[in-house]
Specification:
The chain is of the alpha/beta class. The chain folds into 2 domains: 5-191, Rossmann fold (3-Layer(aba) Sandwich); 236-421, Rossmann fold (3-Layer(aba) Sandwich), CATH 3.40.50. 44% of the residues lie in helices and 14% in strands. It is built from 18 helices and 14 strands. The strands form 2 sheets. Strands 3-2-1-4-5-6-7-8 form an 8-stranded mixed sheet, with helices on both faces. The protein has a 6-stranded parallel sheet with strand order 11-10-9-12-13-14. α1 (12-23) crosses α3 and α9 (193-224) packs parallel to α12. The longest helix is centred in the middle third of the chain and has 32 residues, at 193-224. It is globular and about 70 Å long. The structure holds uridine-5'-diphosphate-glucuronic acid (UGA). Residues 119, 147-151, 204, 207, 211, 245-247, 249, 252-254, 256-257, 260, 315-316 line the site of uridine-5'-diphosphate-glucuronic acid.
Amino acid sequence: MKEPLGILGAGWVGLVTAACFAELGHEVWVRDIDDARIEALESGIVPLHEPGLPELLTHNRERLHYTRDPAQVFENARLAFVCVGTPPTYSGDADLSAVWHLLQEIPAATQTILVMKSTVPVGTGDKVQSELEALGRNGVGYVSNPEFLAESTAIRDFTNADRVVIGAFDEEQGDAVARLYEPLERPIIRTDVPTAEMIKYASNAFLATKISFINEIANVCEATGADVTRVAEGMGYDSRIGSQFLQAGIGYSGNCLPKDVAALKQLAGNSGYHFQLLNAVIEVNELQKRRVIGKLEKHLGALRGKTIVLLGLAFKPNTNDMRHAASLVIAARLLAEGASVRGWDPVAIDVARPLLPGVELHENLLEALTGADAAVIVTEWGQVKQFPFGDAVKVMNGAVLVDGRNVLDPDEARAAGFAYESIGRASLG
Ligand code: UGA
């Protein structure tokens, strides 16, 4: 019989973790403080967009138990994954209030191991341990097990993980967590707790650095006549560099990279170290989104009164996640310039609506383009990659296309009559 597991927090990480462990044969107790979310899950509704997740939850519904009551989790499971949100505070630190609240809820005399999946600052494990001692919860252990799942590929990232990182204070507690992952036959890295916590931040910060680096190369390519997509291809063959995360565009967004880069910068600052490189990574990323405006102005002049359509609103394709999405910044900049802004997205419209006041939202691509002066590709959805050049040029008022993701063929765009701009492909522009 497989070890029963607890999941504390039914957000994206919690649900993916629950579904994948249930698929491996574990009984899983999933707890969330949100009644509506628990009710939705019980009736088979998945409150977020992640490919494959609804199917996996349905397939394993007999092994998945949803509850609002933390005691039920601790009664049934000796290992409980902490998957609560740790959003940034005004100071840029991570808000750990959900974690502290959870510790208060652990019933006295509970025997369990808390397995931290939420992204938490280095040093959190030590603080949690002290707090558990202060609360007299001597039967509660602690293991750090950061997640490396990317949205839209999370199920594959879980089952086919590049590595599983386990940081423990106590060898046996680490072994208990390692055993859960053994069936996946993925590399398991065992460390102390602060090292595991740092691996998570350093990995996300490095990915962000790679993106800002290639975006700066793209900007130099524009000035010098090189093609960044071919530069990235040529660099990627070097196995020391690798080909992933070298796609130039409008910068990284989403709930993870921006938040974690900022948190690592603050963490370093709080410890008295000035992390200069991360400052540059953040600044390049902010400017990269705004370069779109200059590209539009190059063809349209002043944007006041012009109608601009943002193609794609979610921070990346195959998700409805709008957190820190580049579309929010670009829309706000365009509105500030006096443009009329429209937004198109196949799945994120409902999530986007309250975040984009003043933006006219559309689910139909051609309808969004009708009468517009220009379109900007913000998110590389499949529908955008198959851009209907012929129909679009007929319904649009102007024919300016800024491809913020370098997904279209410049020759095809120009042959269709578009003034086409992309990122770092000056020799084609
Ligand atoms: C990221 C990491 O990739 C995961 O390993 C990590 O577990 C996760 O954060 C997390 O901390 O939870 P995610 O935010 O889902 O995953 O998305 P990514 O695929 O990393 O993309 C982030 C942003 O970078 C997107 O806006 C994407 O468009 C952009 N990006 C990505 C580029 O601009 N260029 C690239 O070459 C790659």
